[in-house]
């Protein structure tokens, strides 16, 4: 199907298309959000593109012909700091690890805390559609 970038709340509600059917969104290779833009690499190209998150669906090529997008990774210092210890590295979670005031916790796909290493089985009709 056509490629879309959609934003929604944590519960999977309030869907809003940020970008739909854009010619450069056929095979994005990486995605990063910084300030008011979504940055993505266009696979098999030499192009880093960005789109406004809010307002008009305006996209532009940000960097072109500087690197091969297939060998590039989007990273930003303020998001992925090397000087901060990741408490989730110390525990094993089968689903999602989150940081609470009292340390790392494992969450199930539905946001509930893991109990005795298990998550309740979700009914398919309760899962969000993407």
How does this structure look, described?
This protein has 130 residues and is an all-beta fold. It folds into two domains: 4-71, no CATH class; 84-114, no CATH class. Helices cover 0% and strands 34% of the residues. It has strands at residues 4-7, 16-20, 28-34, 37-42, 47-52, 59-64, 96-100, 103-107. The strands form three sheets. A four-stranded antiparallel β-sheet has the order 3-4-5-6, with no helix packed on it. A hairpin with a 4-residue loop joins β4 and β5. The chain is globular, with a radius of gyration of 18 Å. It starts with a strand and ends in a 23-residue tail after the last strand. This is Vitellogenin receptor. Keywords: Receptor. It comes from Mythimna separata.
Keywords:
0% helix; 2 domains; globular; 130 residues; receptor; mainly beta; two-stranded antiparallel ribbon; 6-blade_b-propeller_TolB-like
Chain-wise SSE layout:
Elements: E1 4-7, E2 16-20, E3 28-34, E4 37-42, E5 47-52, E6 59-64, E7 96-100, E8 103-107
Antiparallel strand pairs: 1-2, 3-4, 4-5, 5-6, 7-8
Protein name: Vitellogenin receptor
Keywords: Receptor
Organism: Mythimna separata (Oriental armyworm)
- From the alpha-carbon coordinates, what is the Rg to the nearest angstrom? 18 Å
Oligomer description: single chain
Spatial gap, N to C terminus = 12 Å
The helix count comes to: 0
The count of domains is: 2
Mean residue pLDDT: 76
Q: Largest beta sheet: what is the strand line-up?
A: 3-4-5-6
Flag low-confidence runs.
none
The dominant shape is: globular
């Amino acid at each position: 199907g056509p490629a879309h970038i959609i934003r929604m709340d944590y519960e999977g509600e309030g869907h809003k298309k940020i970008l739909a059917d854009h010619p450069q969104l056929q095979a994005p290779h990486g995605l990063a959000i910084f300030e008011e833009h979504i940055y993505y690499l266009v696979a098999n190209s030499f192009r880093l593109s960005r789109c406004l998150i809010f307002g008009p669906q305006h996209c532009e090529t940000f960097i072109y012909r500087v690197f091969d997008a297939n060998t590039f990774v989007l990273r930003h210092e303020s998001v992925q700091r090397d000087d901060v210890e990741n408490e989730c590295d110390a525990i094993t979670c089968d689903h999602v690890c989150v940081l609470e005031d009292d340390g790392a916790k494992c969450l199930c796909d539905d946001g509930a805390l893991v109990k005795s290493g298990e998550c309740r089985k979700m009914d398919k009709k309760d899962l969000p559609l993407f």
